[in-house]
Amino acid sequence: MPSLTLISLDENLEKLNILKPLNEVLEIKDIKKIKPPKLTFNPDRKQYFSTSLLHFLELQRKDRQEIILGIINSPIYTPGLTSAIGESSPKRGVAVVSAYLLNNNEIIKEAFHEIGHIFLLNHCDFINCFMHCSEDKKPSQKQEFCQNCQALIKKNKAKLNFSKNFESLSLVYSSKSVSFGEHIFPVEKYSLIYQVLKENRLFKNTSFYEAPEAEFEDLLLAHDLEYLNDLKELKLTPRTLFSEIPINKEIMDFFISHAGGTILAGFLALKEGVQ
Ligand SMILES: [Zn+2]
Ligand SMILES: [Zn+2]
Which pLDDT score is estimated for 139? Predict the structure, then answer.
């Protein structure tokens, strides 16, 4: 049977106490407080990015039937919306509710609503149902899951089975630095991602692998010999002339390591499995 873990993403745990009524649909197994990593906060918008909070919450899962609900007192957003009050990922069994714009009744309603989505419920026409989605709020009305939604929760309860958290991560990275000059893709993104993953310690065990250079025979599986020779010898020929980035040794080495790293990542995924 699924159980619920409540996680406060702020300093105080107070707001979690008002969520006790969730016990009616799910046994609350654990209540804790965990600060989300810096990268979930967008300093330009002064809001947390709710989808990345969901990723973070998913990492806290201990068993496959554990539903995780995070609550945060700060404003959150999802792409395309200026602000949001909650988001859930039914597939991954996680939800987050922002208490920032809500009173206590609304927090409870939103929490039930997102949990309902995790139980694979869609929005519902019954105005007093937690799964009703409407702009005109009627907070004075008593809200509950309607009979249809209750029946669906009962039916779907047994089906829920989420992936385990990522205990470990294998990361392939090349420390070779390269510059493309003025280019639409800022190549610094690779080292920035590496730094963020390293600094935020999102995973308990992270193994870093230096990307090896791809074997010439492997490159031949995807390219013509003539083309590879032109690149290797840094020749400007009709085959390489229209490259959108400069052709020099540094850039060639970078791409050969890029291909080698991709191959190694594929091997690691075959060995360790993919989530
Ligand atoms: Zn909804
Ligand atoms: Zn309903």
Answer: 46
Q: Within a domain: residue 162?
A: no
Beta bridge partners of 10: none
Give the count of beta carbons closer than 10 Å to the beta carbon of residue 111: 26
Question: Beta strand 76-77 with 47-49: parallel, antiparallel or unpaired?
Answer: parallel
Please compute the mean of the pLDDT values over residues 44-50 and round it to a whole number: 94
Both 68 and 199 in one domain: the answer is no
Q: How far is the CA of 125 from the centre of ligand 2 (A)?
A: 7
CA proximity to 124, closest of 141, 106, 91, 148: 148
Taking the centre of ligand 1 as the mean of its atom positions, its distance from the CA of residue 159, in whole angstroms, is 20
pTM over 0.90: no
Ligand nearest to the CA of 84: 1
Domain that holds residue 209: 168-272
Q: Ligand 1 centroid to 252 CA: how many Å?
A: 49
- pLDDT, one tens digit per residue, over 169-227 is 788 998 887 877 777 777 888 888 888 777 766 666 778 899 999 999 999 999 999 99
Ligand showing the shortest atom-to-Cα distance for residue 117: 1
Please, where are the H alpha helices in the chain?
14-17, 50-58, 104-118, 147-157, 189-200, 216-220, 225-232, 249-272
Of 102, 137, 157, the residue that ends a domain is 157
Q: How far apart are CA 86 and CA 187, in angstroms?
A: 34
Confidence band of 45 (pLDDT split at 50, 70, 90): very high
pLDDT beyond 50 at 2: yes
- Could you give the 3-state DSSP secondary structure of residue 75? coil
Distance in Å, CA 115 to ligand 1 centroid: 10
**Which one is predicted more confidently, 217 or 272?**
217
